[in-house]
Amino acid sequence: MTKLFPNYSRRAVEFVAGEQNYLIDSDGKKYLDFTSGIGVMNLGYNHPQLNQVLEEQASKIWHTPNLYENSLQETLAKQLAGDQDYLAYFCNSGAEANEAAIKLARKTTGKSKIITFEQSFHGRTFGAMSATGQASIHEGFYPLLPEFVYVPYNSLDELKRELDGNTAAVMLELVQGEGGVIPADKDWIQELVALCESNGTLVIVDEVQTGIGRTGTFYASEAYGIEPDIITLAKGLGNGFPVGAMLGKSKYAGAFQPGSHGSTFGGNKLGMAVAGKVTELIRQRDFLNETAKKGAAALSQLKDNLSELPIVVDIRGTGLMIGIELSESQLVGAAIDKLEENGVIVLKAGSSVLRLLPPLTMNETELSEGIEKICQVLEELADV
Ligand SMILES: Cc1ncc(COP(=O)(O)O)c(C=O)c1O
């Protein structure tokens, strides 16, 4: 009898070890991983350099409070900003990064309304949940925070109607992840940014899932040619060590004075040491180009094999963030079950999308083998 709250629907498998792009369960069965722990393990499992940096830091010091200097935070903040003018605030999760973003936007603009998008996902804490545009996630938790409104994604009409003198921020994912792997149109994003700029409204890009190389650039916003006012990060940043970050343009520094915001564990030394190494390894042109190339090859292999299948509605994605939309929700569950039996694990997104988020370290042969199995299973399901 479990002593855990039943707030997760858990599969009857426990992974007890991981090796590069594979997971091993308690019976010794090996699985090729197309989940990355939901977009977390971008550098795969048991990475020797990450193990080394964690062990070295663990033998020095784990934690010091944010009452003292922290050179590891300074180093990571510089790495994440690159040549852009961002300051960093560190926390422990995606929801916390989004809470910080909402607070910074409200405080710095003195306005309260936050516009987000239908089927978006920003986390489960009250601010992040209020920003999430999915009624099923709000159910039972009303009242939400006031002044959050949801408008259709990839569309301007309602956005223009809602953008007013009290709008602090527009907050969005550039590829909606949990909502069903839905990429934003580039023209729409450019127009949205221009509208916000002329309205004195901040643009918050939630890169919790799309960031840290997932879509083939370090930040998805690079490929859209935009520099958001605020970027939020978590998931892949610590490759399994819990770390989140909010990056904001330095001109907003005045809004976060001592006492405005904080976290006991945020920016702790273990997380900073690991995230620094993760960022160093991923933020390299060759690694990112390779990710984009592998993603394009995976997408075309899927399209070549599945486009004609009657149960496949759409195949889309950027980099190694790929969605296969199926005609019925139950088909996704059936595909996940069959693939797990065959030693490949995949994810669901939205109501009927099979989501693939392999580690960025997965090589072309492994990707191709996994995709072959995915195609086989979907062909079998189409025949039933
Ligand atoms: C885009 C996005 N934002 C925020 C979150 C919440 O992150 P966390 O679960 O670390 O709080 C997620 C998690 O799936 C996400 O995909």
Please characterize this protein's 3D structure.
By secondary structure, this protein is an alpha/beta fold. The radius of gyration is 21 Å and the shape is globular. It folds into two domains: 15-33 and 285-383, Aspartate Aminotransferase, domain 1, CATH 3.90.1150.10; 49-282, Aspartate Aminotransferase, domain 2 (3-Layer(aba) Sandwich). Helix 12 (329-341) crosses helix 13. The strands form four sheets. A seven-stranded mixed beta sheet has the order 4-12-11-10-7-5-6, with helices on both faces. Strands 1-2-3-15 form a four-stranded mixed beta sheet. The chain has a four-stranded antiparallel beta sheet with strand order 13-14-17-16, with helices on one face. The two termini are 36 Å apart. The chain has helices at 36-39, 48-58, 71-81, 94-109, 126-131, 135-138, 157-162, 186-199, 220-223, 269-282, 285-306, 329-341, 364-383; strands at 15-19, 22-25, 30-33, 86-91, 113-117, 148-151, 167-172, 175-176, 182-183, 202-206, 230-233, 244-249, 312-318, 321-326, 344-345, 347-349, 353-356. The chain is built from 13 helices and 17 strands. The structure holds pyridoxal-5'-phosphate.
What Rg do the Cα atoms give? Answer: 21 Å
Q: How does the major sheet shape up?
A: 7 strands, mixed
Gap between N and C termini: 36 Å
* Overall strand count: 17
Task: Indicate the CATH architecture of the largest domain.
Answer: 3-Layer(aba) Sandwich
- Percent range of helical residues: 25-40%
Output the structural class: alpha/beta
Percentage of residues in DSSP E strands: 15-25%
Give the full name of the CATH homologous superfamily of the largest domain.
Type I PLP-dependent aspartate aminotransferase-like (Major domain)
- Can you identify the CATH class of the largest domain? Alpha Beta
Q: What is bound: which ligands?
A: pyridoxal-5'-phosphate
Major beta sheet, strand line-up:
4-12-11-10-7-5-6
Globally, the shape reads globular
What's the number of helices?
13
Summed up, the domain count is 2
Order of helices and strands: EEEHHHEHEHHEHEEEHEHEEHHEEHEEEH
Q: If you consult CATH, what is the topology of the largest domain?
A: Aspartate Aminotransferase, domain 2
Low-pLDDT segments? none
Q: Roughly what is the average pLDDT, rounded to an integer?
A: 98
